[in-house]
Amino acid sequence: MMQYDVKSYHAQASGNATTSAVRLKGVTVTSATVSARNMAVADPAASKSGTWSRTGTLVTVTINDNGLTNGQRVFLDVAAGTTMRDGVYTVANVTTNTFTVTSVTSGTASGTVTMYTNIYVELDTFNTVGLPVPVPGEGIYCPNGIFVGCGSSVTATVFYG
To answer: Which of 12, 39, 52, 93 has the greatest number of beta carbons closer than 10 A?
Structure first.
């Protein structure tokens, strides 16, 4: 029997697929390059904005009342036009208003960032062939919708209903 209520959203950059309550049914992720890349599907309502600055590969992110703990994984959506990559990062050196992450790129730079803390699914890819990942059963309940975070050179299609 065919299911008719499933919709899809194709993302070539980070953004909201929907802000309505849905169930995540699956994800297909593709990298444009054969190197480590990642993406995340997150709660669009669990986001906070701030700034970042990088020296070498150490990035300090300033977000007031960030609510994080060391070792937590977050998706960082970095403002366009910078040399910092969007992606999933592990936070360290957490204080009330700052934390650090390690960047794959190096140099001195700064900019603005939006952090997503409630990640439903995180996928890593090393291949230019699309990786389909079905979600079994009824899917993952996403009460506030779906934010699709695409790391550098990543595209993703999410299926939901």
So the answer is: 39
